[in-house]
Structure formats: C-alpha cells, structure tokens
Amino acid sequence: MTVKIFIRRKVQVNNSAELTLLLKKLRALALGQPGYLSGETFNRIDKKDECMVIGTWRSVEDWNNWVNNPKRIEVQAEIDRLLGEETEYAMYSV
Fold first, then answer.
1. Which residue among 40, 42, 57, 83 is least enclosed by CB atoms within 10 Å?
2. SS3 letters for the chain?
3. Could you name the CATH architecture of 3-93?
C-alpha cells in the first residue's frame, strides 16, 4: 500500500538558507532509500513561516526503515535544532 507522509516545519527568515541546504541533503539521502517514490516541497501562502513536504513511499515498512536510518536521524536532528522545535509528521494511505 502506497503511503503519503506529510512533514510540516516552521521556517524562520534568518535560517531559511541553512534549512534549504539541510532539506536538500535529506532529499538526496531519501533518493537512495528503497521504497522512496517522490517528494514535493510546498511553502504555505498564508503563513510564510511554514512549509510542507509530501513524500510518497511504497509502503509503511519502507517509510519506517527510512525513519530509522542513522544518516536521516543525524540530518533531521540538525534540522530540528536549527528550527528550535521538532518536525511534525502525519502518515496517510493512498
């Protein structure tokens, strides 16, 4: 069963350049992960400090393997530290 992962982050103007680099690093790692199908990044129009990434994965198991990948955990920790809060995740079936 294909799953969509909605990833919400709050972005501050003063850290958006560094965040962009970290997100690109994370996406590059995901591209090599089994089960990763696609990802899109959206900037919210009515709340300039919010962005949403929608990732598509082949299965919940593939997503869980990615979530537990040590390299992903390392980059995600950098992202959360930069933002000052934890990233929010929501998983939906297609």
1. 40
2. CCEEEEEEEECCHHHHHHHHHHHHHHHHHHHCCCCEEEEEEEECCCCCCEEEEEEEECCHHHHHHHHCCHHHHHHHHHHHHHHCCCCEEEEEEC
3. 2-Layer Sandwich (3.30)
Position 21 confidence tier, pLDDT thresholds 50, 70, 90: very high
Distance CA 77, CA 36 (A): 20
Residue 60: is its pLDDT beyond 90? yes
Q: What angle do CA 73, 76, 81 make, to 5 degrees?
A: 125
Count of other CB atoms within 10 angstroms of residue 17: 8
* For the chain, percent of residues with pLDDT exceeding 70: 100
Type of residue numbered 65: N
